[in-house]
Specification:
OB fold (Dihydrolipoamide Acetyltransferase, E2P), six-stranded antiparallel β-sheet, 11 helices
């Protein structure tokens, strides 16, 4: 290497071309060091997982309710003209009134039956004596031994007969896997939309929602144990109420109700946890798998608490069943799972990249993998599209121990950190990174310093 000093002539020092080159370099550096244009509040909201994940999960839960509710029958209902009253071949207990509506045998305990207004506003009956042959009524209750044990009666204009005492179980069986699958579908779909990575979105959404549905079905085993325990306490409480012909969840003791609600909550926690595992089983890190399982469990547990209170303390007609209670419960499950998945993900993140410019401005990418590839190819972990200056695989971020390093992958336009072109460099929280014309901020969770 030459030992000769570098000499700059006076005409070179004041050459306008040199000034222009320095101005270009200075403007480039200022573009990096200065704050990028502010991101609008609406865009920040739409790119905030604490907003879009709960909203999408709520819509998924509402879809489950709309699909299944027309098929869910809590209390069988029959109606039409009364054909027989207290006639053979009924074998009723003392004080029980037996009637026939169409082909259905109906038992009524006058001391423990609710009289309601008709569906079209007809005045409610005031006494069981008003029900005679030819009276048009609608009754609901519990089917037992081919008979309907009545809990509520109301007048109807229909001569009937209509309704069935048989209760289809398949809608109840389908509720858990459908809820888990559709919520997973909504979460993965929304996450894919916010990243604009359509190829990966389709792949992950379809496969993840299928696995979530499968795992939610497998959750019947642990969830069924909790539901069985809760139902055992309810049945024991029912057995002690000998004076009542028909009992519902409204009639159990407060202690039994709390146990039953807690068991339902635990059952939904199992469903949420296994759905979370299923939806992130493919193309995810162990940390993502853990976060979705914890978020799903907490969300399912909290949402599960909302199923029974409305059913117990609500004033809705017995003919309506538990439809509104299920609606509130499913929406609570969806909102809670979406919220907790986003919250656990945010609380557990170690480092992330926040996009400051371009179509993804305001979006954050958590650095789960090492290396995390940044590029314009859909296969990239951070997909930066609509920037012609970014290569398919432009740069990658490595986790080295407790620190992070960025490495340029031989890109055409290079990678800069804090205004300086880099080949490979350790990152510090707050560093601004430029790839092409896209600006990103590297942010890191503050590490606790041990007290001496």
């Amino acid at each position: 290497m030459s030992e000769q000093p570098i000499r700059i002539a006076r005409d070179e020092l004041f050459n306008p071309e040199v000034d222009k080159a320095l101005a270009r370099q200075r403007s480039g550096r200022e573009r990096i060091v200065a704050d990028p244009p502010p991101v609008s509040g609406f865009r920040r909201l739409m790119n905030n997982s604490l907003f879009y994940l709960p909203v999408s999960a709520i819509l998924a839960a509402l879809s489950v309710w709309l699909l299944l509710e027309p098929k869910l029958v809590d209390f069988p209902t029959v109606g039409g003209e009364v054909m027989l009253v207290n006639a053979d071949p009924f074998d009723t207990g003392p004080g029980i009134v037996a009637i026939t509506i169409g082909s259905h045998d109906v038992w009524i305990d006058p001391e423990h039956v609710t009289f309601e207004e008709g569906d079209d506003g007809q005045p409610a009956f005031t006494s069981i004596d008003q029900i005679q042959v030819g009276t048009r009524i609608e009754v609901t209750g519990f089917a037992q031994g081919g008979r309907l044990l009545v809990s509520a009666i109301r007048p109807t204009d229909s001569a009937g007969p209509f309704g069935e005492t048989d209760k289809e179980l398949w809608p109840f069986i389908l509720m858990f896997p459908l809820t888990g699958g559709l919520i997973a579908f909504a979460l993965l779909l929304t996450e894919g939309i916010t990243t604009r990575n359509w190829v990966r979105m389709i792949e992950r959404t379809l496969l993840g929602s299928f696995l979530a549905m499968l795992f939610a079905a497998l959750a019947y085993l642990p969830a069924g144990i909790f539901f069985t325990i809760g139902q055992h306490f309810v049945n024991s409480d029912f057995a002690q109420q000998h004076d009542k012909f028909v009992v519902t969840i409204k009639d159990v003791s407060p202690t039994t109700f709390v146990i039953f609600a807690a068991c339902r909550s635990a059952g939904w926690a199992c469903i949420g946890a296994l759905s979370g595992v299923g939806m992130n089983l493919v193309r995810s890190t162990r940390t993502q798998l853990r976060n979705s399982a914890i978020g799903g469990a907490l969300g399912g547990a909290l949402g599960g608490l909302f199923f029974d209170p409305l059913d117990r303390w609500g004033s809705a007609s017995l003919f309506a069943g538990a439809g509104m209670s299920r609606l509130v419960g499913l929406i609570a499950v969806g909102a809670s799972i979406g919220l907790f998945v986003a919250l656990i993900e945010r609380l557990g993140r170690e480092a992330w990249l926040r996009v400051r410019t371009g179509p993804l401005a305001g979006k954050s990418f958590i650095l789960y993998k090492t290396p995390t590839i940044l590029g314009s190819a859909p296969e990239s972990d951070v997909y930066l599209f609509k920037d012609a200056e970014i290569d398919a695989s432009h740069a990658q971020v490595h986790r080295v121990g407790t620190t992070y390093e960025i490495e340029d992958m031989g890109s055409r336009t290079g990678t800069t950190v804090g205004g300086n072109p880099v080949r490979r460099r350790r990152l510090a929280s707050g560093d601004q990174i430029i790839l092409g014309s896209t600006i990103l901020d590297f942010e890191e969770r503050q590490k606790r310093t041990p007290v001496a």
